[in-house]
User: Fold these one by one.
Assistant:
Number 1:
Amino acid sequence: MRRPLVAGNWKMNKTVGEASELVNSMAPKLNELKGVEKVLCPPFISLPVISYLLKGGEVGLGAQNMYWEEKGAFTGEVSPAMVKELCQYVILGHSERRTYFGETDETVKKRVHAAQKIDLIPIVCVGETLQQYESKQTNEVVARQIKFGLADVDAAFAPRIVVAYEPVWAIGTGKASSGPSANEVVGKVIRGALSELFGNQTAQAIRVLYGGSVTASNAAEFFGQSEIDGALVGGASLKVDEFVAITKAASKS
């Protein structure tokens, strides 16, 4: 059985003070929910404080990115060890990183291997743009991102990986994919590519989340699908009641 997981990607929102207030309001309610893994991913600057506030509870902590080198002259970057000191998870290959900061399947692969080396759980994002979607290239694009981004990962580590299917055209637009449509991509394309890499048994063990305009009102539609194991939530994760409601829906799935 794949345990549901709901992760909140706060993106570039909340100062340290604001992040602390949000966690103090949200964490007690999340701690009450059983049968679902919960993860918060605030900006780097808030990780130390949030790590302290979450200590002893049932909410995990994740970073929004990291570099693949262990240390060195890489101004502005954060190493795997720096993330590992505070976090259990790290988001890799988010479409905003690919679009605005030039990340590629190759650099995602380097980051995944760095996460494997230090035993961080990567949440690896894949998804097609609107143009690719309209050109019916979804299957080709998503399969390529999986096969290149996760190439040469150790079979023993593979079940720890989390994949997030986030159609780029649905992120922050309010235009979520339908549950059945997302489920088909996850079941046929993503698990198909994972099966080619690691075998069917491992492919069935890897959790795959949906992301892209997930709200409390549509979450149950996604969580009711057989292949979807939770969500990577953006804007709604900044609202206590909304994120708790989404997580509660996952705990019932």
Number 2:
Amino acid sequence: MRTDEKIRAFYPAMLAACGKQGWWPADTPFEVVVGAILTQNTNWTNVERAITNLKREGLLDPAALASVAPERLAEIIRPAGYYRLKARRLLAFLRMLADEFGGDLDALFALPTAALRERVLAVTGIGPETADSIVLYAAGRPVFVVDAYTARILARHGLVEGDATYDDLQALLQGALPDDVALFQEYHALLVAVGKRHCKKRAPECPGCPLEGYLEDGQPATGGE
């Protein structure tokens, strides 16, 4: 089976085994933006606690959040970890939004996809995974979010080398799949689910994995992290 065929075949296999994941859990696009920044280097449970704090304070709005002092914001989002750093990153995003788009998230999201991605990436502290999470889940544009689970699963199936870059992985997936926002969202979420349950960092648990049947001789290969 060719690489692109295998990538396409992974999706129905994961969906049948894991069911729809329904990502991203948020009430508004702005909440997605905040969650994408807060989830750096932590788990979603911690992010949920921080977002609950923001909701309780009435701060899940660009103008309201931008008015908060950095020290207070850091304390509010403390459950997300690296809270001072993440407060600075949130405020950097909000400054960009205010200075260049009048604080209007819709105006930012009206940019063409490539320009939108480039503008979000230019914000201090926002890397490709965070930027693409914002572009895919908040703006609803077809860019594939690559994370550690994606890299690990593709490498262990021999579809990429262990040293493949973010751009390499994204190009491979987007080249194999149709340009579809809902598909990219669900596929990414399913890779996370399979990674957590089966394709673990230290040792894969292949028996029962929905992708076990796609392993070939000598796999799972090393690599992916």
Number 3:
Amino acid sequence: MRHVLRLALSLVATLLFAAAAARAADYPDRTITMVVPFAAGGLSDVPARILAAMLQDRIHQSIVVENKTGGSGTVGGAFAVRAEPDGYTLFVNSIADAQNLYFLPVPYKAIDDFSMIGMIVEGPPLVLVVDASLPYRSLAELIADAKANPSKINFATSGPATSPAMALAQLNSLAKTSIVGVPYRGAGEAARYVAAGAVQATFTFYAQAKPLADAGKVRALAIASPQRIATWGEVPTMAELGYPNFDYGGFVGLAAPAKTPPAIIAYLNKALNDVVQSKEFKERMAALGMHVPAAAQNTPQYLADYLRRETARQAPLAALTGIKLMKPAH
């Protein structure tokens, strides 16, 4: 009887494997949904939509980008992680996945519950900008005024548990200042309020900062990354100005629900690299202050390792915010 049961289980496993292999061999044969957990036009959404438009031409199948917002990205993540692991629902992950578990009860494991596909793009870094009508010509001048007048300078942030708020907390810690964060709905809105003179300064992303600076509405004082931005070379880094280990870059990656067949993951990784290594894609990302990792480097494991390192690196930065942190279970 045991022998018959073993044979039956073996047959079921073989049939399931064969069915999965057949599905992978036919993939893709219908529309793919790419879930972006943030609003349209945001820093995750723009690269994802460019990728989707170029990728569907290569795989000869439609890709629909669906924005499922809320919970600092966790609403979209929870939706994607529950999807059938068949390659037809993909998830656009980001630095928020490395930060959220310290601030929110995230209903999934950002690494273990997804099969990584590859990096779409790395960056952009945060840029410290001030209202251009103000007299600050350097970070040193801004810090000196903040120390002399503790209640005078406010920084716009995109909420208490976000990269701009964490960057402000680190600046306060290193500079021994008490600059106050004023929350807005996103880094883009925060930058616009600085440009309008409603608040003095902010840490915002290159894509929001550069057009406003070019229009003379804000002045960039520092880049929050280890290297200067090639297209904005005159702006120094925080490290150059005496604030080491000040790195608020980021990434946009692509993943699928865990247990997606390895053949489908390999297929999507190759297709993704075909797009992101193209001259057109690289040029469009460079205009946003972002860059693409080398093709040989851009594997599923690379994205998983990157997210794992960032998750560990965010812990002490999250602690600086003064928010009572969650105890990550993963």
Number 4:
Amino acid sequence: MSTPTLTREAPWQAGWHSAKLLFRPGLVLQCMALGLVLSYYYLPGARAGFESLAHWRTGGGYLFSAIASALCGGLLPFLYLHFTGTNRSAYPWPHLIFFAAFWAWKGAEVDLLYRTLSVLYGAEPTTAVVVRKVLTDQFVFNVCYAAPVGNLFFGWKDAGFKWGPVMADVRAGGWYGRRVLPVLIGVWAVWIPVVSCVFALPAPLQIPLFNIVLCFWSLLFAHILRRG
């Protein structure tokens, strides 16, 4: 596989285009996340369902987070792409292993992040605590680790699970600006409001809400890719 072609579009322009593409599905996700938060606080009849989710999350620990994220972020969107796409060869079954393993790892990783943020800033979902958690999540963890590492692994997958083309692309120069920054801008436009809703819930419900939104996000994003 040849080295990926360098984009001539400025990173901020590419990011802005991504943000515009994701605006409508992102707005749906944001409204859904907000609706779930409001349901928790203002609909007593919904409390039983939330308490069950909190019980499963507390009892399952990191294993719950890994399995739920693998299902919501990996299995469901892959099956959607594989069985509804016009080119099934673009989504071979070995990719299912990658998606499931990647999102299982990310689920446990996000769980650890949320626990760490609660230790650093507190577990009470006050405005000050939510703002600190969102800023740390999106502009420290995401910028310095999650976005670049995720980009590398998806580049590895797209290169036929070969690191050579990925490393050649990195060595070509300006890799972060070309590959990571446009993704970050699109992600920020959708996920800053979403994670604000996530952190507005008690700690045992944060991972379940993350996974509910992740499921719909992955399916919507898969739909965009299928149409592209």
